[in-house]
Amino acid sequence: MPKLTDPFQRTIRYLRVSVTDRCNYRCFYCMPLRGVPWEERDQFLTFEELTRVIRLFTELGVDKVRLTGGEPLVRRGILEFVRQLSRLPGLADLSMSTNAHLLADHARDLKEAGVSRVNISLDSLRPEVFRRITRNGDLEAVLAGIDAALAAGMEPVKLNMVVMRGLNDDEIEPMFDYAVERGADLRFIETMPVGEAGIDGTDHFMPAVEILARLKAHAGAELVPVKGGKGAGPARYYQVGQGPARVGVISALSRHFCDDCNRVRLTAKGDLVLCLGQEDRVSLRDGLRQGLDDEEMKAIIRAAIARKPRSHEFNSDTRRVALRHMSSLGG
Ligand code: SAM
Ligand code: SF4
Prior knowledge:
The protein is α/β, with parallel strands linked by helices. It has one domain: Alpha-Beta Barrel (TIM Barrel), CATH 3.20.20. The chain has helices at 47-59, 78-86, 103-113, 127-134, 139-151, 172-182, 195-202, 208-219, 285-289, 294-305, 326-329, and strands spanning 14-18, 64-68, 93-98, 117-121, 157-162, 185-189, 223-225, 235-240, 246-250, 263-266, 271-273, 281-283. The radius of gyration is 19 Å and the shape is globular. Bound molecules: S-adenosylmethionine (SAM) and iron/sulfur cluster.
């Protein structure tokens, strides 16, 4: 299988695909209240185009795809799209990131269609705090979505909590208990300065070391780094005491997670984004709509990967920031 390797000898095996920039929530660290200037729908890649691009990536060695957004479940036809993707021979792992607002009704069908696992945003277990963070979110619907994902046998169900000082940091411990009770994975995320809304989030920045110290006190046990549990993703995992509970932390600012980055991102309008924290991007839509054949498209993808930067430039002091909104990038 041909490999996509960048100039720093990192092999790209993971594609995150934002299927829409639209969302039914307005998390304040992700999107401005008014929403973002939506892309016109005809600017979005069609599901047919997306399937073709993803097939090309699998032929270049990518075997892991995560569907994200915006909120992927608000795009009409998503289920049929998932069915198409799961027929791609090279695709070993198809997952989704969702706010779970619509998941209660879709979890079983999604699982049957080929989404084996989900990541779900859950920043608070208190309805009023949840609403303040998401601006219009419905905690009850989300909790029902989580239960539905577990009942459908998605494995693992990962809960992602963006920890924000003064907003939800008093829920680190209850969130841990909630996840342990359900056998869900839990990951704590530091706020990242992506886009205008992301800067608002960094006003509440809380470093991972502090989160871990709180958990250690709560569990009354050591947090032992899980060997080999880091994988190529940005999360670092810790076993709580003798286990089996474990937690992950995603720490963009306080630790570089770039050295073994294996991923690139595709926006809904077909821009290949080479790094979450840099502006470099290459349009694949142009080539698709100019009628380029598979080999020509692959040449564009390879040339793009050759431009992947070594690392992001997030920096908590200078607050140097990427200009995009996280909602168009999919996290
Ligand atoms: N709507 C889906 C969801 O909320 O899971 C998928 C897209 S969302 C952009 C993906 C992830 O990005 C979520 O876990 C969200 O919490 C995270 N995210 C968005 N903005 C962020 C920021 N400024 N800092 C850290 N994480 C952020
Ligand atoms: Fe929507 Fe997810 Fe962004 Fe919240 S984090 S506004 S749910 S895309």
